[in-house]
Structure formats: C-alpha cells, structure tokens
Amino acid sequence: MKKYLLGLIALVTAITLNSFTVKTSKHPTVTKNFWYTAYPNDSHANDPNYYILTGNDGTDDPDCPEGSIHRCGVIAQDDGTGLPDLTSAYTPLTRR
Amino acid sequence: MRNIKSEIIAALLILLFAHTAFQKYLEHRTFLHTLESSTLLNPIATFVSWSVPLTELAIVCLLLFPLLRKIGLLCAAVLLTAFTIYIVYMLLFSPTMPCSCGGIVSSLSWKQHILFNIVFIGLALYGWYSMRESNDPNNNIAIRRSQTPVT
Lengths: 96, 151
Description:
The complex is a heterodimer of chains A (96) and B (151).
Chain A: H1 2-17, E1 31-36, E2 51-53, H2 55-58, E3 70-77, E4 91-95
Antiparallel strand pairs in A: 1-2, 1-3, 3-4
Chain B: H1 4-26, H2 28-36, H3 45-64, H4 69-93, H5 110-135, H6 141-145
Helix pairs in contact in B: 1-2, 1-3, 1-5, 2-3, 3-4, 4-5
C-alpha cells in the first residue's frame, strides 16, 4: 500500500484542486476579450457559441492581426458560461 | 527495490495530468472551441478534445502502479514533448493564441508554459532513467555483496 500512497495523494489533490479553479469573476459589469473562431465567415458573428475567451480568463488582448476586414473578436460581458453576452452592449473587433 | 525519486516524480506528474485532464472534461466546450480555432487541429478537433484528456488519464493509471511506472514516465515525457511542439508551432505560425491548457497552467504566459513543460519533460526522463538504473542488476548492492552465485 505504501507504494501507491504518494500517487493516491497526488490524485486526490488533483481532484480537489479542480474545485478551486472555477471562474472567479461572475460580476456582470466586468468585460472580457473573446476571439471569434469562425473567421473569415461573418455569418456567425452574432452567435456566442463561435467565440472563445482569450488567455488569462479573457484579460489578454485578442491582438487582431493584419487581414481582411472581418470580425476578429469582441469585448463583452461574460454570460457566466465563458461565452460573450451579445444581448448587452459590446465592442466588436475587426481584422484590418 | 523501492525508488523514492521516481515515486515523487510520478506523483508530481499524476498531479499535473489528472488536474489538467479533469479540467479539460469539465470545460469541454471551451476546449473544443479552442481546438476548432486552430488551423492545425481544426479537422480533428472533436477527436483530440476527447482523446487528449483520455490519454492523460491513461498515463495517470500507468504512473500509479509501480510495475507500469517506467512506461508511464516515458509516455508522460512523449506527451509533454508533443504539447511543447504544438505550443511552439502556434507561437511561430498562428495569428491567434488561445489557451486550452486547463487549470493553473492557463495562468502562465506562453514562455512560462514552454519552460514549465520542459521542466516536467526533464523530470519524467530523469525518473525513467533512475528507474532503469535501479533495475540494472550491476547496481544492486545485495547481489554484489552476495557470497554465493545468484541464479
């Protein structure tokens, strides 16, 4: 049993740590940066499912690079599920 | 013969892989979207989104059992190397850099993440190497001190 002790402790710790890595900011007025994943197809620009948070829980800039004038991302409120709330005011970002 | 060094290294790798695997499953939709936004992995995003955490959990199982730990350490090094190559590729060729790492790793910068991976690759390889040495009969003190031939 001693052979498995360290490994089991590590496994239990990992499972416990997952309880402490939920999103910390659910404040409705905090805005976050989201990438638009369907570039250059703008037809899904109003669908929140085609956006993803940038690094560091949406605090990193999307850093839209050079390219066609299409939707690159948005700065919007998090709807609580990691997707942008496009029903409230938001700032669209385009690749220039 | 018990190898404490490899046990500690295996425990650290179990902690890392179990945590990131569970995090990827808990936030599966985010992970899938991140993969779909990658030009390299977009065609196989769904497959990768399920198989990567599954592979991590399989490595956790290998590392838990002493008899399979050596293979687990080697597989861990290979998987971490693959992750590092992917990050370097994205840094060099991708216009956007989403992170789908999972858990505490998400809070690292890209350079820190690469360094983090390299450290754990080194640990995994060191653990594998130290298990190889401890299994080598030429290093077994009991055999060297034995007066009678060991058959």
